[in-house]
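>> received
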Amino acid sequence: MKTLRPHFAFLLRGLGSLLFTLLLLQNATAGGLTNGTPAFQTSDGVKLFVKVAGQGQPCLFVHGGPGAGSQAVEVLAGAPLEKQLQMIYLDQRGSGRSASDPQKNYSLERQVQDMEELRQQLHLEKWTLMAHSFGGILAVAYAQKYPGRVHSLILVNSILNLPASMESTTAYGYTLLPAATRPPLDAAAPLPQRYFMVTGLLQRQGLYNQLQYASDSSAARVSRTMKGQPANHDFAASMFQNPGSYLLDYTPATASLAMPVLVLTGQQDYVTGPEHYKSFQFPKQQVVVLPGKHVPFLDNPQELNQAVQRFVRQLPRKS
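>> returned
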């Protein structure tokens, strides 16, 4: 028996080493992240909601709105995305399930810094950014400042020139109003005045969802999901009062961003503008035009997920 003890100890050490190696490989496969809801507080003390779910390349979901939060996409469209990517759902400061900033600092520069601080906390060398709608501005601004940290971009009906998209929304939204009741639209009036007049009328007449969704069922699903859930709109209210850098045109910057880019755009997406994507100049971009309007996560999930899957399969494992 004494002669077996050294061999037994050696065997245990070997098994321990093997298990440790397997754990390392498992973590590497999952991007080194543990799924869950890690606590995250920014350097200026704002607590932000974060949830990590899925497997594969780490991917930060950059929600739109402004201030919409990530919960609707997470709950209603997250499962198929999480089979391909390890999704990181972040509610931006003043949005969704995250806290407001007592100092009301909702500048683009601060939102980009929040994203970078999260990457550092998660110990990720690089990540993919998946941006929807208004989130496109945040994603491209981040990629401009930290190009070496972006593995790839997935832009879903993304806005890169907010005034241009507001013009599209205003023009199309006006046509949705009943001709007999809609007021005259002064083309010479300032854009914010025209935009908020039209969107306000659409909301009061119960027509706003026709801008966003291809079907009433998609709008109803979002409504049921978000009923009774936290909905912080502080970012949205503050941004429109002091838009700052959000009003800049970020399409020229796309020409210098060399990471792989998937552009998904809706044929009838007049919130972004159905031809807005034609101004994008990413050197390594793929464009997929989807049927439907502004929220393909719900209206065209099969086409969207197939396009994402093809793109992810083509991505280099290391870059």
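>> Confidence is low (pLDDT under 50) at residues 1-31.
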